[in-house]
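From the methods appendix. Each design record in this collection lists the tokenized structure first, followed by the designed amino acid sequence. Records were kept in a plain field format so they could be parsed without special tools. The example shown here is representative of the layout used throughout.

RECORD:
FOLD TOKENS (286 positions):
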């Protein structure tokens, strides 16, 4: 079964407190919100798992959750003054009545989706907030390891203890989710294989994110496989490192149409994980 880390951004301008606010948003969906005069108790921004498209022309901004399932919510943000933002998750039944809520100030919180809930909302409330530099909210099942939320997450999929060769397959996250697919590789591969998931918001710093991983494998024959034009660009100076890079442009030139479409458009979509793993396996065929 796939593990999904849902990603939520500050993209609800209709639900944003704008009176007296200096608001800036960049191409990576990172937001700077400044308002030193905002009264405490006011809501800065809210998101909902259900939207009336005909009325608001907006789709739901929160992922659907499973009743009775436990989740972890992580907020990537810098808040000034520290701990001056209050976060709330509110749960509603089919009649629209609030049946439960959780209120917290930490940037990480565990919660259980109530059995009778059909809708939930998340909000940020001012407790004296003057500035927020907001990146994203991540929501995932509770049982995933902590490292899965990092901008670079290496996930081993094949172990060959007798090989000094290492294959690292770099994949972009789509905007809305990091999707970690299970792989059962039954045939022999002449190398250890790892999928490296890269945050789309920071993949232009891919080489910097990979330095520790590359250093840990400096005694191995490391080969890095890129899956997009953006990753190609971020690895442009890889000749300074002790590793080999197979750029996605090589796959495009070979007529890999799915990757070609992504390469040309540079859309942030879920990558073809199966195809990239097959390409890596073929590379290490002995």
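DESIGN:
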């Amino acid at each position: 079964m796939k593990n999904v880390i849902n990603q939520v951004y500050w993209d609800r301008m209709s639900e944003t407190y704008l009176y007296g606010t200096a608001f800036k948003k960049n191409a990576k969906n990172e937001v700077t919100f400044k308002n030193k005069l905002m009264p405490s108790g006011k809501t800065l921004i809210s998101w909902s798992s259900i939207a009336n498209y005909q009325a608001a022309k907006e789709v739901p901004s929160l992922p659907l959750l499973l009743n009775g399932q436990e989740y972890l919510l992580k907020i990537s943000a810098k808040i000034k003054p520290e701990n001056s933002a209050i976060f709330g998750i509110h749960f509603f039944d089919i009649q629209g009545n609030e049946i439960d809520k959780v209120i917290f100030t930490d940037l990480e919180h565990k919660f259980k989706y109530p059995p009778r809930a059909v809708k939930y909302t998340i909000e940020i409330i001012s407790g004296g907030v003057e500035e927020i530099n907001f990146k994203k909210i991540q929501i995932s099942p509770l049982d995933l390891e902590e490292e899965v939320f990092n901008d670079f997450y290496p996930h081993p999929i094949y172990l060959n203890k007798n090989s000094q060769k290492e294959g690292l397959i770099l994949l972009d996250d789509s905007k809305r989710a990091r999707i970690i697919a299970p792989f059962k590789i039954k045939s022999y591969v002449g190398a250890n294989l790892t999928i490296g998931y890269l945050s789309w918001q920071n993949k232009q710093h891919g080489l910097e994110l990979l330095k520790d991983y590359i250093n840990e494998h400096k005694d191995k024959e490391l080969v890095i496989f890129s899956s997009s034009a953006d990753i190609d660009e971020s690895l442009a100076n890889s000749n300074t490192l002790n590793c080999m890079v197979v750029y996605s442009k090589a796959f495009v030139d070979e007529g890999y149409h799915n990757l070609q479409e992504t390469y040309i458009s540079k859309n942030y979509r879920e990558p073809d994980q199966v195809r990239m793993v097959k390409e890596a396996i073929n590379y290490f065929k002995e």
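APPENDIX NOTE: Residues 3-142 form a domain with the Jelly Rolls fold (CATH 2.60.120).
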